[in-house]
């Protein structure tokens, strides 16, 4: 089948867009691959007349096995979990697939692409996705929440040195952390991150360190244990132990310019120490990733820093614009809008799908499901950025399974984007990203945690347009699609 035969009713999610009248036209190869596992489902079957050699008969069309359709306010999307591809269809095709209008030629084109099938003998309704039961898959163990030798201007936890630290509170003991690690493994969790503050400042009652906790996690069954550090306290000795335990390390680096890095950490000399730590990790062959948080203070050295990280041997890094949590809630810290738009906004569809991700997203949140964060004072959050939304305390209930099965965690895990303003009307809601703490922060308390619109998407499902504006919540709680930024968004998408 020629792509041109299809372009008036169906296009594939692509890097390149061409606008012809009101139709998006297919150009180039189909993009987006995924892998597959397993609720709700949407399987369609329609009946239309098929003409074959002058003989007209009734034929049944249905989407192929593993292919699902979801409607948006204006357009629709076909999810092919067999290949991982996501197709967007316009309103005319949406009506055909939903059965509101008949067009056998369109269905035959879908058949030719492997997205639909026909059977003159009343084909069976496709098998539904089994309900996906979420389990604990990832834990942030925030072993030192407020202690850090740096005092970064954007820190979500407001961590800092002793002289800047908040009032003293009861901390979890080493044995309590060991118990929580054990209970997490018993709950089926295989991946965790030890984080702070600065986790290398952690000391247990008998002088135990973050590496002692990491070693225990590895011994009891954690397959992936990562330490997120600023790298300033790394030494050849503790890195050798990291290597021996087969741990992973994540490091924050804000600029290749020492003065800019030190301005963000608010501690002179922190860049030199971090660079030294990175060199030790590299020389030891430790599995390391370098994270670059993007803000106004470092936007001018962004490209140079990305090149520096790559040349250092740590691979490609995508800048992550700061989230408005903790000290990061200061809006003046955000990068200038053109920079933010390029690295922080979804400007075009580049989606993937799989049977497992679709099943999860139909029932729950694409980012939060299967995750929890535990702080050093025992508070349990849905993630490390959700500081205003506690789902329990291990000091009040020492049995982690009770918290996991409790109303707080379960509500978070099983709150899908069907509850999110705007997203609930979007055909891409089951293959798109999300960040509830970011959405809550940008709603300024006017719309709730589960309903606040995702502020980093430029798609308008009511018009079917990408990069025409951004969704905002005003001071009164009103929702608007701010089109004043459209020229900037269009400039960014066109590469100007």
TrEMBL record:
- Keywords assigned by UniProt, alphabetized: Iron, Iron-sulfur, Metal-binding, S-adenosyl-L-methionine
The record's listing under InterPro entries reads:
Aldolase_TIM, Radical_SAM_PqqE_MftC-like, rSAM, rSAM_sf
GO MF annotation list = catalytic activity; iron-sulfur cluster binding; metal ion binding
PANTHER family assigned to the protein according to its UniProt record, in alphabetical order: PQQA PEPTIDE CYCLASE, RADICAL SAM DOMAIN PROTEIN
Give a yes or no for keyword Acetylation in this entry.
Answer: no
Which residue range or ranges hold the Radical SAM core domain?
134-365
Q: Which SUPFAM superfamilies match?
A: Radical SAM enzymes (SSF102114)
Q: Which protein are we looking at?
A: Radical SAM core domain-containing protein
Please report a single Pfam family linked to this protein: Radical_SAM
């Amino acid at each position: 089948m020629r792509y041109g035969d299809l372009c008036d009713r169906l296009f594939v999610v692509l890097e390149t867009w061409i606008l012809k009248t009101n139709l998006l036209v297919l150009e180039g190869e189909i993009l987006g691959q995924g892998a597959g596992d397993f609720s709700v489902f949407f399987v369609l079957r329609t009946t239309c007349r098929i003409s074959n050699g002058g003989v007209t008969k009734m034929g049944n069309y249905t989407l192929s096995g593993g292919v699902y359709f979801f409607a948006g306010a204006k357009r629709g999307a076909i999810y092919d979990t067999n290949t991982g591809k996501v197709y967007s269809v316009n309103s005319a095709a949406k009506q055909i697939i939903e059965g509101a209008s008949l067009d056998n030629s369109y269905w035959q084109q879908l058949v030719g692409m492997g997205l639909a099938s026909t059977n003159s003998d009343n084909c069976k309704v496709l098998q539904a996705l089994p309900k996906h039961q979420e389990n604990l898959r990832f834990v942030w163990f925030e072993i030192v929440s407020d202690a850090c030798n740096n005092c970064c201007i954007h820190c979500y936890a407001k961590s800092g040195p002793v002289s800047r630290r908040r009032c003293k509170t009861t901390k979890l003991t080493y044995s309590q952390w060991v118990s929580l690690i054990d209970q997490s493994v018993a709950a089926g969790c295989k991946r965790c991150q030890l984080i702070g503050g600065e986790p290398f400042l952690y000391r247990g009652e008998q002088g135990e360190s973050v590496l002692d906790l990491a070693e225990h996690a590895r011994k009891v069954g954690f397959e992936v244990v990562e330490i997120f550090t600023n790298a300033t306290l790394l030494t050849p000795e503790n890195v050798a132990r990291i290597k021996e335990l087969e741990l992973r390390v994540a490091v924050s680096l804000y600029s290749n310019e020492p003065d800019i890095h030190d301005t963000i950490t608010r501690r002179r000399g922190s860049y030199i120490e971090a660079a030294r730590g990175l060199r030790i990790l590299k020389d030891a062959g430790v599995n390391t990733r370098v994270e670059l948080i993007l803000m106004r203070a470092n936007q001018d050295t962004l490209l140079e820093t990305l090149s520096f990280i790559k040349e250092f041997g740590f691979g490609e890094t995508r800048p992550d614009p700061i989230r408005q949590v903790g000290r990061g809630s200061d809006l003046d810290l955000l990068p200038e809008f053109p920079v933010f738009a390029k690295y922080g906004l979804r400007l075009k569809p580049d989606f993937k799908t799989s049977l497992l991700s679709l099943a999860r997203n139909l029932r729950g949140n694409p980012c939060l499901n299967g995750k929890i964060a535990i702080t050093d004072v025992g508070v349990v959050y849905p993630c490390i950025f959700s500081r205003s939304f506690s789902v329990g305390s291990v000091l009040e209930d020492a049995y982690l399974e009770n918290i996991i099965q409790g109303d707080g965690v379960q509500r978070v895990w099983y709150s899908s984007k069907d509850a999110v303003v705007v997203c609930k009307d979007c055909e891409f809601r089951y293959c798109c990203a999300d960040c509830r703490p970011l959405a809550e922060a940008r709603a300024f308390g006017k719309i709730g945690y589960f309903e606040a619109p995702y502020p980093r998407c430029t798609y308008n499902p009511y018009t079917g347009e990408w990069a025409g504006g951004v969704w905002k919540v005003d001071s009164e709680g009103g929702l608007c699609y701010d089109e004043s930024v459209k020229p900037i968004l269009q400039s960014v998408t066109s590469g100007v």
